[in-house]
Design a protein that fits this description.
By secondary structure, this protein is α+β, with helices and mostly antiparallel strands. The protein has a single domain, classed as Hypothetical Protein Pfu-838710-001 (Beta Barrel), CATH 2.40.320. It is about 25% helix and about 45% strand.
Amino acid sequence: MALEIEIKFALRDRAELVRKLSDLGATRLYPETFEDNIVLDRRGELRTRGALLRVRKFGRYAIATFKGPTSFESGVKAREEVQTGVESFELAIQLFDSLGFKPTFRYQKFREVWRVRDVEVVIDRTPIGDYFEIEGAIDVIRTVATELGMNVDQGIRQSYADLYRQARRTRADLPENMVFPPDAL
C-alpha cells in the first residue's frame, strides 16, 4: 500500500495563498473543480478500525479509495492508501453497496490542485469554509508549510467528516451531509 502523508490548514486568504504559491514557482495542475465524495461502510466496521472507503468524482474522473488508520507525526497525518480509477462513480457505489458497503456520508467541495517541488497543495472550498492541504514527503511538507507562512502545529487533525459533525453541533441549519445547496452548483 502507498502511504498518504498530508497536513490540512484553515484558509484565511485565498488570494494570498495563491500569490505565495506563485512566488514559490508552483504550477496549477487543475483549476477549481467540483468534487463529490461518498463514504461507505458495512455496519461501522471500517470506522471502528479508523479506516475509510470512499468513491470520489472529480471533474470527469471517478476514483475508489481505501484509507487505513491514521497516525500523526508532529501534526502531520499519515495513513496507508490504495486508490484506483473507476469507470463510473455511480456504478462503483452500486458495486460496493452490493458487497454490503452502504453510503454513510456525502461531502462536496470545489478543489484546485497545485504542485510545488515534490508536494501537491490543494485548495478546498467547502460548505463549512475554506481549507488547504499539503501532501507529499514529510520534510518537504514542513518546508513548504513554513514558506507559505504556516506552522505545522496549526494543522487541523480532523477529517472533513469530523469538521462537519463539529459544525453541525453549533449550526442547526446544516443538512445531514456536507453538500452545497443546489443553486450553488
